[in-house]
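Batch manifest, entry 17 of 40.
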Amino acid sequence: MRYRAVVAWGMVLAAVGGAYLVQRIYGKPAMKMDVAVRGSAADRVPVEMVQAEVVSLASTTTYTGAVAAYAEEDVYPRVTGRIVEMRVYPGDRVDPGQIVARLDDIELSSKVREAVAAAAAAEANLAQMEADVLVARQGIIQMEKELAMAEAEAGYQQSVAARDERLFTKGAISQQEAENSRAMAAAARAKVEAARAKLDQAKAMEASALRKRDAMAAMLAQSQAMLRTNEVVRDYVNIRAASSGYVAKRLIAPGTLVQPGMIILKIAQIDRVRFQANVAERDVARLRVGSSVRVRPAAGDGVLDLRVTSVFPFAEGPSRTAVVETVAENRDRRFLPGQYVVMEFELGDRADVVSVPRRAVQRVGDQTFVWASGSETAVRRPVKVGPADADRVGILSGLQPGDHVIVAGHENLHEGAKIAVANGAALAKAGAGPGVAGRGPQPADSPPEEHRGHAMAAEGEAAALQIRLVSPSGSLRPGNHQVRIEVRDAAGAPISNALVEVLPGMAGMPGTKLTARSGKEPGTYETAVNLGMAGAWTLEVNAARLRGGRGSAKFNLEAK
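Output type: structure tokens
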């Protein structure tokens, strides 16, 4: 026990002696315990701030729409057959009349040959019937001649009989001679009747031959029509496109036996496209043909300023929505049928109003307010909002042009909270007010700038921060997911004191802004994100550090 006490006293004396030597050598104590760091960055809430500006705004509403082809064509066969060739593939351009597929033509070609033979036979029969008609006409001519001869003979015999009758009356000839003359006249008249009967028979034969010829001519016309029909049907084995466009789908593979009406290809005209959205009836009433609409891809950049071309005159189902459409040129094939787009419709006329970004406006129950900047603190200021678009909200009362409002970092604010402006350098260039960089001379006893927590960037804008989504990635299931983000400066060094906000959302349906917390590794930040439904999601990440430097990035996720 005595040995241990001696060792303990020795250690205490060694520590006191070391402190005395440090003081003697450097002229100051080794540690001054009564120094307090005033106004450190840790005592302040990091925020981003912007100025209220007067801009031209109109009330807008945003809907998720879809791209539709300007026109679509279903290509299908008109005859039964097996596909032996498919000449196009999805993405190929086709022109009107172009052969896109071909069927086996063995059976149809055989029918064409049969029709050719039937037409030839009918033509030969018609020629025979024509010959029969000529024969009948020749018979008529012959019978007419015989009739003429019989009539002449009958006339002669009649005159002889009349003469002999007069001579017999006078007694110049015998009764026998008179009776012979009468018999010869009667025989001549009988020959006339026989010749007339033969003439009628010849005419009847001509009429019959004519009827047969006409019937055979009709059969020939029918055979020729059948031949043309079979030739046309045989050409149906060459399946053609009726209009120009691009092959959108190929539904049948070569070798498949197809039936008439079975769709084998879909062709879409996409040099022009239709943008369509289902708009609620409360908004449809304020839209008309010619209303302004801005269209942008759900995943991608670029905005099209267009006009409404059609408002469908009926509402669909329980949703009570009507289709509103606009048409645009699409020569570069930037938009494809089925893609999602965001359509922002203007619901009224534009007006010049004081406005702030949407993310500056906060709502709690029936109260609408913004966080404004006091001297160096946050001030909650009630406002009355007016027209709004996808990016900005008009303020009818509660703000003046040039007032500074907080757009990021609201989560940790309360009335009177001290703030540190992360984008102070940018505000200084714009003429910032109290509580930001560029606020004028400071009292002589002010603490050093690094302890006040105001991001004082060097002259000029700080280099942009680099943002990378570490996880999750790939296809995800709907639900909660842990998002991990990495933030680095332009040189690639990790940034551990940044304000990082994550805004998840789908096209036309922005979500709730989240503040990411620092992770275990330097420069990493984490937060939980709820992907509530299947579809394409966007994570918008904004990062700003207190000493200057900002960055933003968008990441696309797919929930299935």
